[in-house]
Amino acid sequence: MHEVQDQSLQYSHPHTRTPEESKAVRKKILLVTLLLSVITVVEILIGIYFSKTHVGPGTWTLIKWFYIILTLVKAGYIVLVFMHLGDEQKNLRTTVLLPMVLVIYLIFIALFEGEELLQYVQEFMK
Description:
Blueprint: H1 19-49, H2 57-81, H3 90-125
Helix pairs in contact: 1-2
């Protein structure tokens, strides 16, 4: 007959970090904070420097795409670090990130087709 062991003793002692582990965790937190802060500051500076009245429509479209890319980089990094997806196996990361890539593709299609539709409607109204 199979004996059932009491597993409650396994989890009674919390894991204490070594000084090296603590230093690595602090370094990772600092790196994440620094990277996300730099991306945010770049977005803010671009928003302050440029406005619709100072740039042409082609440049404004480029700025919008730059914002979208920076936002997606921040979102991906947040998912990988804060949601601990970066520590998971490759199959799980793919399962979570692939739908996000497909949604990004759908957003690209919607933006592109929306711009084409707007131009068509403007031509039709003339």
